[in-house]
């Protein structure tokens, strides 16, 4: 019996990596929905800047969600695709009733910190298992997310 996926990864390795990618996917979905809510409900003197920034961030998150799901499929596994699964698996919690500039930026920073932490775990696992495609995908994402974290922290300073 063949123990390799169609792209040459060990099947067991692809299952372990996909499990972590699905965890990241779930967290990204809750992060995305939180950003949508912040975009719709933001109030205050920073409305125009944050309304636009949250739209930029949720559009970026949506692109990353698609890339993650496609990577899970590429390594021979199935991406989570129900909101109930996302809520069950995600470490990020739904943000409700937030509309102030500081509280939404703090929540966004906390959410993105969870994502970056997961990405670092996935990066180490994928590198250990010689999954260069996942390493490349996650490395690029970490770089962008760290820059966003820095910007969010600058706003809060």
Characterization of this structure:
α1 (11-41) runs antiparallel to α2, α1 packs antiparallel against α4 and α4 (101-128) runs antiparallel to α5 (132-156). This protein has 5 helices and no strands. The radius of gyration is 17 Å and the shape is elongated. With 157 residues, it is mainly α. The model has no long low-confidence stretch (mean pLDDT 96). 76% of the residues lie in helices and 0% in strands. It comes from Pontibacter virosus. Residues 19-156 form the Ferritin/DPS domain.
Summed up:
The chain is an all-alpha fold and 157 residues long. The protein has helices at residues 11-41, 47-74, 83-89, 101-128, 132-156.
The CATH architecture is: Up-down Bundle
Helical run tally = 5
Instruction: Tell me the count of domains.
Output: 1
What is the succession of H and E elements? HHHHH
Estimated structural class? mainly alpha
SSE layout and pairing:
Layout (H helix, E strand, L loop, with lengths): L10 H31 L5 H28 L8 H7 L11 H28 L3 H25 L1
Characteristic key phrases:
about 160 residues, mainly alpha, Ferritin, oxidoreductase activity, acting on metal ions, Starvation-inducible DNA-binding protein, Ferritin-like
């Amino acid at each position: 019996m063949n123990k390799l996926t169609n792209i040459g990864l060990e099947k067991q390795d692809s299952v372990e990596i996909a499990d972590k990618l699905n965890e990241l996917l779930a967290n990204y979905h809750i992060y995305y929905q939180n950003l949508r809510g912040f975009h719709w409900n933001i109030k205050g003197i920073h409305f125009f800047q944050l309304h636009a920034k949250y739209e930029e961030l949720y559009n970026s998150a949506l692109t990353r969600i698609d890339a993650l799901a496609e990577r899970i499929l590429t390594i021979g596994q199935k991406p989570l695709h129900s909101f109930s699964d996302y809520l069950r698996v995600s470490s990020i919690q739904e943000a409700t009733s937030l509309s102030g500039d500081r509280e939404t930026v703090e929540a966004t920073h906390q959410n993105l910190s969870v994502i970056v932490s997961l990405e670092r775990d996935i990066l180490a696992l994928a590198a250990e298992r010689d999954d260069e495609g996942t390493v490349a995908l996650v490395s690029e994402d970490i770089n962008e997310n760290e820059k966003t974290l820095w910007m969010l922290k600058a706003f809060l300073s």
